[in-house]
Structure formats: structure tokens, C-alpha cells
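Example 5.3 — Amino acid transporter transmembrane domain-containing protein
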Amino acid sequence: MYPTKPEKASEELAAPAIEATITHDEVFGEITECGPNYRNVGWLGTVALMMKTQIGLGVLSIPASFDVLGLIPGLIILVTIAAITTWSNYMVGVFKLLHPSVYSLDDAGAMMFGRAGRYFFAAAFCLYWILVAGSGMLGISIALNAISTHGTCTAVFVAVAAIIGFSLSSIQTLGRITWLAWIGLASILTAVFTVTIAVGIQDRPASAPEGPWASDYKLVGNPSFTEAIAAVSSLIFSYAGTTAFFAIVSEMRDPKMYTRSLLICQSGVTATYITIGTVIYYFCGSFVASPALGSAGVVVKKVAYGFALPGLLVTTTLVIHVPAKYIFVRALSNSRHLVENTPTHWFSWIGCTAGITITAYIVASAIPVFGGLVSLIGALLGTLMSFQPMGCMWLYDNWHKDGNRSVHWYWMVFFSIFVIISGTFLTVGGTYGSIVGIIDSYRTEGGSAAWSCADNSNSV
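Solution (predicted C-alpha cells):
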């Protein structure tokens, strides 16, 4: 029996109300047209966000790490870290698909270790990204000093970086930040490849002594334990965007495309790191700067930092946005204010981005030593967030699986335990080495005082 005309009319009137709900999400709840669309990142946008999370501040310290370790050990360690973190990043996507309600590492921690796991990883997650945001502001201040030839007090530049980072990070969703990620990625790659080409065609790096000169690069270094472990920590920091990937996959339109985006990201990132690290260190030797953009002289440094500045701004934007979004989601979970543009929604969101920005600004001003801050973050929290939890995640999902335990199962158990143990060793040893390095830098002219006006672009 065909429906009557009044029934058709009632169906048409009801349609808009049904279409108003875009989707139901395990994390965000009912996402409607009345609020921000938290599930609007495509797989290409995911590549951009992933690569910009990875290729940022860490790449600028890779040549200096090679100087400590030597070229051959440096490359071996870099590729090893790339392999382990690629597996860790893959586990993020697998765990998210198996447990859709997981939004951040603390959710995984709660599933594996209970309330203590949630609190521990929540604190580590927020502290990590606040420190990364602080290093991002420090990087921007170095860029502004280099471009302007120390046009004003460095403390002012750090404050400017904080204000811009706060403004851009307050964009509500990662889907709306994707275009910034593409710009930032192109910017930072242009800058580092400009320096890479420049050091290859110049006679000497900027800080090399006068007179006949040849690169003193080392195939194998002879560092002390603290120097070596701090250098390894800097390399880990170059790949330590892992915990942001929980937030990124949570905002994908199709999380099943995550692995494709990840493989493209890690392949591009690793190829870039190997190329830049090898070429710059080969031509500069022990006179490589950290950040590396200062290695090719004043003019090239100005040009490179000019190219890099948008990329550094986008990096700072992302690393403020990620912890702010985490706190925001936790605060408004199971509330309509999470997905609707209410006054409570906006006051809470702006409060979260402002709080993260202010805290990160204090960090950037209090520890104004780029290399030391990068290695400390990589050691203390980068490893902790990229190694141990992912080994535990595999064991959590696979330890009690029914059926015969194959050779592959035993291999994965061994590998997961290896990742946990090696990550713990690197966390403890790297933190010690990085703290010793920061203390030493304050005992030399390379270190500057907190809230200093000194030009931090000339000391690196």
C-alpha cells in the first residue's frame, strides 16, 4: 500500500531533524551541525598533521646529534628509532580501532593499569606537550632574533610566540588546522633543504675558523655516556609525536585509513631526516649549529629562518592544541557543551588553550637552551610516551588470546618486552644525561639566563 500525501509531507518535515546529526562518536558523542565537526580529517590531511607533528623542532638537532655519535652510529640509531616508533604509531591505530572510546594515552593506561595508569599517563601527556610547546616558542624566538638581527629583547620574542601560538591553537578542530599543517610542512622543509644545499656549495660552515679548512666529520664518535645518551634522546624527540596520533586518528573521517597515512608519513620523515642529517653534518662537521639552520652563515640563516618561521608557528600551534583539546574533552565529556557552540563551550576551550600557552611560555623563558631542552624532553617524556605504553598495549590485547601460540606470537611478546625495557633504560639514562648537559651549558657562555634579553640565535 502506497503512503498517502500527508504521510509523505510528515516524512519530509522530519528529514532535516535526522540530517542534523552527522554522526555518533565514542569520544565526542553526538556530533551535530550545531557545533564543531570533530570527525572531518581525511587521510591526506592526516599525513600532513602527522608529518608536521614529527618534522618540526627535532629535525633541527639531528646533525648535532650525529656530531656526538658519529655518522655511522648516528644513522643506525636513527633508523632503529624510526622502525620502533613506526611500530608504536601503528599500535596507536590498532588500539583505537579495537577500543573506539580511547581518545588519549591515559585511556589506554586506564584499561591496562586502572586508575593509577590513567593519572600517570594523563600527567605525563600534559607535561610532555607543554614542554614541547615551550621548545616551540623558544624556536620561534630564535627565528625572530635571526631574521631581525636581534631586533628586540628575546623575552619579548618569546611572548610574541606565545600570543600567536595561543591565537592559532584556539581553532576548534584539527580538520580546520589541516591547511596550516600543509603550509607549515612546506615551510620547514624549504628551510632545512635551503641550509642543506647552502652548506654543500659553501667553502666552510659559519663557525669554522679562518684559514685552510676541511670538514672534521667523524664516521664513529667517541662520546661519554652522558653525551651519547643525550644525543640519542634528541633523535627520539624527532620521532616522538606518537601520542598526538591518538588525537589525530580520533578526528579522522575513516580511521581505517590510518595505517596508509602513517606509512607515508614515516617514510617521508625518515628519508628527510637521513638526507638532512647526513649532508649537513658531512659538510659542517663539529661546527654544525643546533638548531641546524644557523650552520651556513648570517645571510643563509636569515633566509632559512624566514622560510622556517611559518613552520615553527604551526608546530607550536599543534602542540598547544593537542593538550588543550585533551583537557577540554575530559572537562566536558558527556556534556552537550562539548559538541555545541555554547558560552560554556567557548569559555572552557579558550581557557584550556590559554592555560597551556601560559605554562609553556614560562617553560620557554625559564630553560632558554634549545639543544638541552630538546634532549630533556626526548629523554624524560618522549621515550616514555613512544616506547613503553605501546609494548604494553600489544601485550594487553594479545596475551590472553585463545588458540595455539605461534612463533609470531612469541616473537611479538619478545619484541614488546624489548621495547618496554629499552624505553625504560633510555628514559632513565637520557634524563640524567640531558640534565647534566643543561647544567654544563649554564656554566659556559652558551647558556643564557631565564627571561634573558640576550640574542639566542648567535649561541647556537
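Remark. The chain has 15 helices and two strands.
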